[in-house]
Design goal:
The complex is a heterodimer of chains A (125) and B (152). Chain A is 60% helix and 13% strand. With 125 residues, chain A is an alpha+beta fold. The longest helix of chain A has 24 residues, at 101-124. Chain B folds into two domains: 5-120, 2-Layer Sandwich (Alpha-D-Glucose-1,6-Bisphosphate, Chain A, domain 4); 122-152, no CATH class. Chain B has four helices and seven strands, in the order βααββββββαα. In chain B, 26% of the residues lie in helices and 31% in strands. The relative contact order of chain B is 0.16. In chain B, helix 1 crosses helix 2. The chains are: A alpha+beta (125), B alpha+beta (152).
Chain lengths: 125, 152
Amino acid sequence: MRRSKTPKLMSPKSRSSTITAKLQSHASVFAALGDQTRLALVAKLAAGQPHSISELTKRSNLSRQAITKHLRVLESVGMVHSAHKGRESLFELDPRPIAGLKEYLDLVAAHWDQALSRLKSFVET
Amino acid sequence: MNDRIEMRIQLKAPVSQVWRALMDYREFGEWFRVKLDGPFVKGQVSRGSMTYPGCEHVKWEAVVQKVEPERLFSFTWPHPKSLERAAYSPEYSNAPTTPVEFRLEKTKNLLVLAESGFDQLPGDLRLEAFRRNEGGWIAQIKNTETYVAEVA
């Protein structure tokens, strides 16, 4: 079984520079995640609910200032976004840097792959 | 951006048998893991409940689009915002849909599955999909929470 891909009309040069840019942005996302505090913050936000800095500080041994600094690092690579709510800033996970359309398609394709394998054994046995 | 999934699979079975596995709602339910209320009828809504382990609370709903015997079967299905048990609500009328198509190439014993329209789906829906995908990045990050929560 294979997935057919639409060929992209791109010169080898522009394609390689696109790949380089993508790798660079992935590298910066991974660099941002390569810290226990930030990974823990992402893990907390991955549950789906936006959290204020106070909430995120409450469960840690770090100061509000330190947590804010870590959140800004995550924000700089686009992994979290903040929105003002009253006097507080609420931070929310943005999946796009690690979960773009391509990754979503891979996920859906994996589900179909399993379903079609079941269909295959269903009709062949 | 490519927003289409296309998969080809060779099936060593007579086309009539493959067609039955697609169109007979009980046979479809066997391999797709859904319990459907009744037969697929062109232009009508097909309803049922998933039987896939962990997804038993999820309702199946699709609108049958094309039925061309032993050639083509297609439907559109909705993508509700969340499939999590707690947040799940089977209100599909406003959910975005994608078309799914099964095409049989008789001479080659080939089944071609295509699903498209993913660029119409909102980004937060994709996030949900990643949250519930056990092997996915977000799930992996969530798994690390147990280990690193105390450090932060």
